[in-house]
Design goal:
alpha/beta, Lyase, Ornithine Decarboxylase, Chain A, domain 1, TIM Barrel, eight-stranded parallel β-barrel, globular, binds pyridoxal-5'-phosphate
Length: 465
């Protein structure tokens, strides 16, 4: 009975996502939304995973992060299936949890068969709190403290992704104290710059992360790792970039990595078991961003790696990928209530909301594009040009510039910022002592709180009074 229900649900999920992108009437024209989990209902209200966002705003208050649980699961399944289909064996996608780290997400990705990439004791603690199987966790970061290393080993972390020699020494020393053999991957820089689409001698080689293949440092650290007693060298890792829309960078990075693996085999008779290609597939923040067919991209990468491994006559390594953004970004949406509207004739218009850079610092940090829609007037034409700004005492507190909203935008309206599932909650702060919004999960006809709204009392919880 339960099986049948679960199966039906799965079928529904797969079927639903196979529909072509939903075209809805927004701004007076038929357009396809940045993601097919967004629609508009008969009241002209924006819907997320079929639920009326205006009602959700009323029920949970604003600002609020919404997360579409079905979409997270769907995104996980796309990776899981493609990894199984094209790489097979132990190959597995790891959710890069820095994109959005809270207890519930670790349960979801674990249920969907993904491992996790963690970057701090805090993320490890959160994963542990959710009962995550730590043998499927990979510990990143370019500067792990001795405390981090000791904590991760005591939690039974599966793998360290070691960045440099000092860190290898610390892992060796602490693993020896704890009498464990610790599996480690080495983070290498293959010298690929994803944004110029050229293999460059500088650029990624001068990154603060990892050891460069080109300078010989990668070989040095490999040789050194192989000499250690409590470090078990299990393979290599690289991460080429973020918001990448093309497999080309992965093809070139994996070529360089496989050549390095082959080189290590010849020189030291070392066969790397794993190759972790990092994260980075892009998502659509705005209409002009392309759709990525993850399955087709992974197939292309797999075909290329298999051919290269055969050509080099090396064993096919276990492959990992570490998607963060592409698992959670389009599963998120932030709702705000509109407050002050300031019109400066001949200059600029400002629409202020009850959140801002404290819950979404990405425009302030690197001018990230976002799509903004007035949730309670989603079917109205949009001719009012304005900037959506936050409530912080900081002129850079902008969510998006030069957007268009309906002419009658007014205090009390609900503004929705789309595709906020990645690097919003996880980058949120309490600047100006503004409490962090809650995360409300929507699933089917239900919604529930996964992270509570911070209270004013929470803000002084650590203050010594
Ligand atoms: C940030 C990061 C990821 C995830 O990148 P996305 O662009 O969110 O997919 C994966 N691996 C490493 C090492 C990272 O630093």
């Amino acid at each position: 009975m339960i099986f049948a229900a679960a199966f039906l649900k799965l079928l529904k999920l797969v079927y639903k996502r196979k529909e072509s992108p939903v075209r809805v009437n927004v701004r007076g024209v038929e357009i396809s939304m940045v993601c097919d989990n967004i629609t508009v209902n008969g009241k002209g209200h924006l819907c997320f995973d079929g639920q009326d966002t205006v009602e959700l705003a009323q029920k949970y208050g604003t600002p609020v992060y919404l997360m579409d649980e079905d979409r997270i699961r769907y995104n996980c399944r796309v990776y899981r299936r493609a990894m199984e289909k094209y790489f097979g064996g132990e190959s597995m996608a790891l959710y890069a949890s820095k994109a959005a780290s809270f207890a519930k997400i670790y349960s979801i990705v674990s249920e969907e068969g993904l491992g996790a990439d963690v970057v701090s004791s805090g993320e490890i603690y959160t994963a542990m709190a959710a009962g995550f199987d730590m043998s499927k966790a990979f510990f990143h970061s370019n500067n792990k403290t001795d405390e981090d290393i000791a904590y991760a080993i005591s939690c039974g972390i599966g793998f360290f992704v070691a960045d440099n020699v000092e860190e290898l020494n610390a892992i060796e020393r602490i693993a020896a104290q704890k009498n464990v053999k610790q599996k480690v991957l080495l983070r290498l820089t293959p010298g690929i710059d994803p944004h110029t689409y050229a293999a460059v001698a500088t650029g990624k080689v001068d990154s603060k992360f990892g050891s460069a293949i080109e300078t010989g440092q990668a070989e040095e650290i490999t040789k050194y790792a192989l000499s250690l007693e409590h470090v078990v060298l299990d393979g290599f890792h690289c991460h080429v970039g973020s918001q990448v829309f093309d497999s080309d960078v992965y093809l070139r990075a994996s070529d360089v990595m496989l050549e390095f693996i082959s080189d290590m085999k010849k020189k030291y008779n070392y066969s790397a078991k794993r190759l972790d290609l990092g994260g980075g597939y892009g998502v659509r923040y705005i209409e002009s961003h392309p759709h990525i067919d993850i399955d087709a991209n992974i197939k292309q990468v797999a075909d290329s790696i298999k051919a290269k491994a055969a050509q080099l006559n090396i064993e096919m390594p276990v492959i990992h990928m570490e998607p963060g953004r592409s698992i959670v970004a389009d599963a998120g949406m932030t709702l705000y209530t509109v407050g002050t509207i300031k019109k400066i004739p001949g200059y600029k218009n400002y629409v202020s909301i009850d959140g801002g850079m404290t819950d979404n610092p990405r425009f302030a940090l690197y001018r990230s594009p976002y799509t903004v829609i007035l949730a309670n007037k989603a079917d109205k034409p949009c001719d009012f040009e304005c900037s959506l700004v936050g409530r912080c005492c900081e002129s850079g507190d902008i969510i998006q510039e030069n957007i268009k909203l309906p002419d009658d935008v007014s205090r009390g309206d609900i503004a929705a910022v789309l595709t906020t599932g990645a690097y919003n909650y996880s980058m949120a702060s309490n600047y100006n002592r503004i409490p962090r919004p809650p995360i409300v999960m929507v699933r089917g006809n239900e919604s529930y709180v996964a992270v509570k709204r911070e209270s004013l009392a929470d803000l002084v919880a650590n203050d010594v009074l």
